[in-house]
Write a structure and sequence with these properties.
Blueprint: H1 8-11, E1 40-42, E2 51-54, H2 57-66, E3 85-86, E4 100-106, H3 117-128, E5 141-142, E6 156-157, E7 165-171, H4 182-195, E8 207-213, E9 228-233, E10 240-245, H5 266-281, E11 289-290, E12 312-316, E13 319-323, E14 326-328, H6 331-334, E15 337-339
Parallel strand pairs: 4-7, 4-8, 8-10
Antiparallel strand pairs: 1-2, 2-9, 3-11, 5-6, 9-10, 12-13, 14-15
Helix pairs in contact: 3-5
Amino acid sequence: MIKKYAPACFLAVLGFLVVRPSSRAQEANKPMVFEGTVGGWRIIEEGQPPVMIHATAEEMKRFREANPNARPGQVQAASTANDLTYHGGIGGIGVETSPKVYLVLWGSQWSNDPSGESALLQSFYSGVGGSSWANSVTQYCQGVASGTVFCNGAGQAAGNPSHIFAGVWYDNASLAPSHPRQSQLAAEAVSAAKHFGNTTGASNASVQYVIATASGHNSRGFGTQYCAYHSATGSTVGNVAYTNLPYITDAGASCGANFNGLGPKAGITIVGGHEMAETMTDQFPSGGWLDSSGAENGDKCAWISSGQGAAADISLSTGTFPVQSLWSNAFNSGSGGCVLSYP
């Protein structure tokens, strides 16, 4: 089971500074933000930093049915109450100013890739940089006061360069764990940083490592408690941001198969894009941009099937890919909303 928040004394010994989001409790009669209690900040392994989980489509559906005021896909009244705010950064880092994505295909089990997820991910990451879909991250920044809602040119903005994808590592010399724990995924991310020559904190300050596991060899909880998660770990090469990206099609409709009529492989890039964009705006959770209930820019717009921000195909230079929308504070005159392109 996913554990509740750890006490402050426990977090202090993790060796990696984390900032706890403000309470998830909602005041009576106030509209709830889209994700609320089904995604975001969790402790899932003792001794490890928190992870930011991506809720399954089923969990999101149940949440929205139970909380009709969440109103996914509806344009909100003018207000900044639901917007993301800056949480001060970790070691001064809150966003990826020059983002790079490295894909790690972990384990010799990747000789079996029935859905072609490796090639699809590489095509998506190769084309997504500089896209109008990813461009919404550039409204968020670091180097500003905690609680900032609009950067307005201050600080250092998150980047969206045309060449985000920096490389792939086929780490197939041996078997990966059958069901890797968070600590094992974190260790693999550190190994990837060393493999790619990123051996200092500065060289990892705007980098994320996507640790992809092969079909049938995913971490426990995948498909029932989450579709993926991102986190970070302290190491001799600095703080390292990484994503646990299971073999998405193994979870079927729970993690996006045929979501919104977008095809059986839709979840691969919906989930992959969700985690990428969240890391770009909250590199070392949770020092970046989150709302008052701890949701990130992807969480607030996850699994919307109709109305404003519904998941859809986008065209990139490398092909057409299903994605979800991302939260934009600037949308609708600053009231915020889910968008598929920006500005």
